[in-house]
Amino acid sequence: MTNTIDCRIYYSMIGEHFNIYDRNTDPNLVQTRAIIHIHSEKFELVPHGYHDDFEPEFEHVTRMEIPHDVKGGAFFTSDTQCIIVNGKNQILKLGGKYRFDVKMYRNLNDPGMFSILFKDKEITDEPKWISF
Asked: Tell me: the pLDDT tens digits for 120-132?
């Protein structure tokens, strides 16, 4: 299942860890809007051996993508972390974390825009939106 979500992304210009509660006071944090595609699939794990009475096990695999360039402020590194907040003011938590490692690339034709690529291509967990 793929969800397309209009979100706010908070990222650190200097690539440092940050807390979501510092988003309005930390001068190194930038906020921008982005459309995010979150594709999550549930796979049944194949059991080892032959048993008639086994409980099926499942694994979630989630992939995230920001397909379009977004507006952004200046940054000093292309390696940083971001936090994703949806329109209900909830944070995306995935794989036990809410800060995601990303690479950011400036658009050479328009320096005010950049692409965001997630470093973790697949995360074996189901996406959860948590309130803060």
From this structure: 989 989 999 999 7
